[in-house]
Amino acid sequence: MLNCNEVAERLYSYLDRELSPEEMAAVQRHLDACPPCRRWFVFEENMLRYVGECARRVRAPDELAARIRELRQS
Amino acid sequence: MTNEPQAPAGAVQLSEEAISHIDALYRMALRLTGNAPDAEDLVQETYLRAFRSLHQFRPGTNLRAWLFRILMNSFINEYRRQSRRPANTSLEDLDEFSLYHQMLESDFQPSVAQPEQEVLARLSEESVLEALDELPVEFRQVVLLADVEGFSYKEIAEVLRIPIGTVMSRLHRGRRRLQRLLAPCLCQSPSLCHGQ
What is the ipTM of this complex? Predict the structure, then answer.
């Protein structure tokens, strides 16, 4: 079983789903058994999600989209 | 009936699909250039280049990643050298900061059962955007591509033409530095500001 340090090294690769299925399962097993690590991972996951949500609220101005469509036709 | 040349139906469809990504390209351009006029110019330049070379695009490959690659190239070629932002050459390792562990080490007294939620609730959208804009551009690019646009490490490596190991390293350091930049926003709780 992975220890806390080994799981910490895999924090972002795990949250980004970039580990092999075996490694994903190994991290998951540790998190199931270790509430402090689980709590940290949930915090980090929420943090990443929140940053993404904030930045995705920005929309392109309508007149830019109109200009791009004109560009395509020219 | 006119004799004007008509774009092939496939090209029209492809350009329409390309235009559907305008919000994603614009928000990336805005975070890279730091102002709306430059962001609009960058997006327009990206589409100009994309429409010119649409015939080179291989159907079945990732159109969205291809557009982002054009945008990144345009940014590097034409905007970065005249950017009003300070040069961000210092990528030295200051980047092991963890907001969560800062919270645990402080004598932060949460008013709710789950302090993690309270920490996030105190971060305004504006403060998050400002912190993103403060990141060195090399970190900002990977953080935006991963956390805002949801690209995989492999796709980011292709968009930026850097090795996957570099993507992982910049992403890790960029996210840690973002947390360091956000920490002062939590200073309504002075105990969280230790070490700032």
Answer: 0.94
